[in-house]
């Protein structure tokens, strides 16, 4: 058991060291913050979606923006498209699971908004379809994937490709960058 635990620590540290050494990643973070701040400053919103653990990330990050992250300030308009079971099941029943997020982007997304699309493989069909719907409406797309990027990467204005093929390592990287975005958006929108 100790060897397994140490191995997991080693893989996580290796992944984060690779991310920390990536100057392009730091530039992407700044660009994504700018996209989000521009959208919010213009009266837009940020939409989030993903499946499974990525759905949890979508809800987590939307909650950090609507409520607060590091300090008290006014709420920011952010919506997790993963939370309304009536909408999800209606779309799934009427159109199919592949459209659960695309239909919501069509209904809620407006030009200038940002859609944060989270898929460890980059190939989740409902997330990819939502990114396609976003692009068709003039909604900017910030993708979160593993190192391959999948089908989501070319649909993204910015794509965070975590340098791993292991789902837990990818999710750990996503969580870290998601927290950075929340903190930096908060600081930019409501400087202390």
Automatic annotation (TrEMBL):
Which residues of the sequence carry a binding annotation for Zn(2+)?
Answer: 60, 64, 171, 179
Q: Does the keyword Zinc apply?
A: yes
How, per the record, is the cofactor bound? Binds 1 zinc ion per subunit.
The chain positions of domain SIS read 36-192
Q: What class of enzyme is it?
A: isomerase
Q: Its Gene Ontology biological processes?
A: carbohydrate metabolic process; D-glycero-D-manno-heptose 7-phosphate biosynthetic process
What cofactor is this protein dependent on?
Zn(2+)
Q: Which GO terms describe its cellular component?
A: cytoplasm
Q: What is its EC number?
A: 5.3.1.28
Where does this one sit in the cell? Cytoplasm
The UniProt annotation places substrate binding at: 51-53, 64, 93-94, 119-121, 124, 171
Q: Which reactions fall under this protein's catalytic activity? A: 2 D-sedoheptulose 7-phosphate = D-glycero-alpha-D-manno-heptose 7-phosphate + D-glycero-beta-D-manno-heptose 7-phosphate
Self-association and partners? Homotetramer.
Q: What's this chain's function?
A: Catalyzes the isomerization of sedoheptulose 7-phosphate in D-glycero-D-manno-heptose 7-phosphate.
- What protein name is recorded for this chain? Phosphoheptose isomerase
Q: Which organism is it from?
A: Thermomonas brevis
């Amino acid at each position: 058991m100790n060897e397994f635990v140490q191995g997991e620590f080693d893989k996580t540290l290796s992944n984060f060291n690779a991310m920390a050494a990536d100057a392009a990643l730091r530039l992407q973070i700044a660009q994504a913050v700018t996209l989000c701040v521009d959208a919010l400053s213009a009266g837009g919103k940020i939409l989030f979606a993903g499946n499974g653990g990525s759905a949890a990330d979508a809800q987590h990050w939307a909650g950090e923006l609507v409520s607060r992250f590091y300090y008290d300030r006014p709420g920011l308009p952010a919506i997790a498209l993963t939370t309304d079971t009536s909408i999800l099941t209606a779309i799934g029943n009427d159109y199919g699971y592949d459209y659960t997020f695309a239909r919501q982007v069509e209904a809620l997304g407006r030009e200038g908004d940002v859609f944060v699309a989270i898929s460890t493989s980059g190939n989740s069909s409902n997330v990819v379809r939502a990114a396609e719907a976003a692009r068709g409406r003039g909604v900017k797309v910030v993708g979160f994937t593993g190192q391959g990027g999948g089908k989501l990467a070319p649909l993204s204005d910015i794509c965070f490709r975590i340098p791993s093929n292991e789902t837990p390592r990818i999710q750990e990287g996503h969580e870290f960058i998601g927290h950075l975005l929340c903190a930096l958006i908060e600081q930019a929108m409501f400087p202390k």
